[in-house]
């Protein structure tokens, strides 16, 4: 029997990072690399002092029902809609996330997805693979939409939204945004961004990019009536969370040509994807990879481990969400 404190690591991390943890902790490690069932999660959390989880494990009152010594659950993600924070606070469990370290990588990906969607890069590849290139002409091509000098509308202007805005400036794009609260004048200037209402953004943007956190209030921020406001030539990019877009309504809009195309990194009920979306050609699909470079995923794990170690050493974790739980 080891006398090291016991922690849970809910999914595979890089082997050297795991080995480092194993020097200080007895690690309960989910080898299966599949999301733990609620029953498994409840059982695992009942016997550990800390846990590193991804955005897929729901940490709520039920998951915490039998905890005895649990001090911290550290999300390896910036979004923490998988946390019921009041329930965690009620159980005196610290909640942490991984902001900043993934901002640029995620903004890069948002822009890559936008470019791939507007310029129909996935469809073009299929075009070649399906032997359709023999029909090339000036008009006989997957014709796309321009990014340069178009208007990008960003909904959710946190760190990642601002990163996308700065990239858009390099393309000579006009940047408009909508957010819960307005940025400071200095921040608006740095992003070259103008604040508009959600309706105006949807009506005027050539490219709509979603980067807002998922909360009950943000459920289906984009549904049939919002899509109806968009230009038929517009693209919609979701790198935020599934559930922010009504995927069934989006599939209908893509199939009927109500908007030009969509790029999705996140889905309602992922890893399941709405079957009607899979039938659309004017879509670029990605399996939630916006933060997926080795450098950034390592940095996310490092920050989550830093949070975990701090909490277990009685120190304030650097990205503590429920500060009221920390007692110095
Ligand atoms: C993660 C993310 O890869 O940070 C987030 O909020 O969505 C991604 O960077 C994913 O949640 C796995 O933890």
From TrEMBL:
Entry-linked Pfam families: 2-Hacid_dh, 2-Hacid_dh_C
Example GO molecular function term?
Answer: gluconate 2-dehydrogenase activity
This protein's record includes keyword Oxidoreductase: yes
Provide the top EC class.
oxidoreductase
Q: Which InterPro entries match?
A: D-isomer_2-hydroxyacid_DH (IPR050223), D-isomer_2_OHA_DH_cat_dom (IPR006139), D-isomer_DH_CS1 (IPR029752), D-isomer_DH_NAD-bd (IPR006140), NAD(P)-bd_dom_sf (IPR036291)
Q: What is its EC number?
A: 1.1.1.215
- GO cellular component terms attached to this protein's record: cytosol
User: Gene3D superfamilies recorded for this chain?
Assistant: NAD(P)-binding Rossmann-like Domain
Q: Where is the D-isomer specific 2-hydroxyacid dehydrogenase NAD-binding domain?
A: 111-290
- Give the protein name, as stated in the record: Lactate dehydrogenase and related dehydrogenase
State the organism named in the record: Polynucleobacter duraquae
């Amino acid at each position: 029997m080891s006398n090291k404190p016991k922690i849970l690591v809910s999914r595979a991390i890089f082997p050297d990072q795991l080995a480092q943890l194993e020097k200080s902790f007895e690690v309960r490690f989910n080898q299966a690399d599949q999301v733990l069932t609620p029953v498994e999660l409840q059982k695992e959390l009942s016997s550990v002092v800390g846990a590193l989880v991804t955005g897929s494990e729901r940490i709520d009152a039920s998951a915490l029902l039998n905890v005895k010594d649990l001090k911290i659950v550290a999300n390896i993600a910036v979004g923490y809609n998988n946390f019921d924070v009041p329930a965690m606070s009620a159980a005196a469990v610290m909640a942490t996330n991984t902001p900043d370290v993934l901002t640029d990588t995620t903004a890069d990906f948002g822009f890559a997805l936008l470019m791939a969607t507007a310029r129909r890069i996935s469809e073009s590849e299929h075009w070649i693979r399906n032997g359709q290139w023999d029909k090339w002409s000036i008009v006989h091509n997957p014709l796309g939409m321009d990014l340069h000098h178009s208007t990008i509308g960003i909904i959710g202007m946190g760190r990642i939204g601002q990163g996308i805005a700065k990239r858009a400036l390099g393309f000579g794009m006009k940047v408009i945004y909508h957010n819960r609260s307005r940025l400071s004048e200095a921040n608006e200037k740095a992003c070259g961004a103008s604040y508009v209402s959600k309706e105006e953004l949807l009506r005027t943007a050539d490219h709509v990019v979603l980067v807002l956190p998922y909360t009950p209030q943000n459920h289906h921020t984009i549904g049939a009536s919002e899509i109806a406001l968009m230009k038929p030539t517009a693209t919609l990019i979701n790198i935020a969370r599934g559930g922010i877009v009504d995927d069934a309504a989006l599939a209908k809009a893509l199939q009927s040509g109500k908007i030009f195309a969509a790029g999705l990194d996140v889905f309602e009920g992922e890893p399941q994807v709405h079957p009607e979306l899979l039938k659309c050609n004017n879509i670029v699909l990605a399996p939630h990879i916006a933060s997926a470079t080795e450098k950034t995923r390592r940095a996310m794990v490092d920050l989550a481990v830093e949070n975990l170690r701090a909490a277990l050493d009685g120190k304030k974790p650097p990205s503590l969400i429920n500060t009221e739980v920390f007692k110095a």
